[in-house]
Amino acid sequence: MTKPALTLYLAAPNGFCAGVDRAIKIVEMAIEKWGPPIYVRHEIVHNKFVVDGLRAKGAIFVEDLDEVPDDRPVIFSAHGVAKAVPAEASRREMVYVDATCPLVSKVHIEAERHHQNGLQMVMIGHAGHPETIGTMGQLPEGEVLLVETTDDVATLTPRDPEQLAYITQTTLSVDDTAAVVKALRTRFPKIIGPHKEDICYATTNRQEAVKAVAPKVDALLVIGAPNSSNSRRLVEVARANGCAYAMLVQRATEIDWRAIDGIRTVGLTAGASAPQVLVDEVIDAFRDRFDVTVERVETAQENVEFKVPRVLRETA
Would you say 46 is a known binding-site residue? Predict the structure, then answer.
């Protein structure tokens, strides 16, 4: 039986960013250096396939430092943690490795610098997200005000409207964040912004690639976890740029084939914490059902690499 023809537009870049790649290497190298079990506070990155793979190698994922024995190493996730977490680990004389993405750490440093200069911070981010919790936890309570939308800006009550700076979560929608920044600058003309945008290169590049693909296709799939902020933003970007059917799937088994029955053009991308093996799995699933032509739509090239901490590079 002849398979129907389908063009699969693969957005590029997609998948792992440098921060995620570094965080996974940190866990793997820690297991090799100290032997299992290695404890990881929160999912090292937001991807079940990755987490399950590391768990099989000897990683134990916990949500609180209280769940970690004093005599076993612990790793802090790529999303970053509040200052109180490493302080508590040090108090307990624990061995710990910080896998916070360097681009998240950059935001932490910005916040600290502005605080030292007497400014109150406004953070644009999603309430409850680990990165937001970690960033707000760099400063004393009340020194970081959280906003998610332009409506939040309208009700903001800072200590001094002329002594403000803003930072952002690194995985937000570029366009939505620009609107919030504009609202902040309109209401607080003296607010200070970052020297370089806080939204990371990988988030920006993946969104730009989706913007290029979305008008070409009848459906677009984003490979990523439901708790992955950057992956969920890709779905929103696709819908905002002309693709009516955009869905998040963790892997090929979650694709709703009935929903794309009769469609002949599909876009595909993957969030920054989704490995290449899942992209290949989805492409193979399409090849099983269609006569697939893959067209790569590349809007940027990435060659960023972050070093792992020295403690893991040193021989025991």
Answer: yes
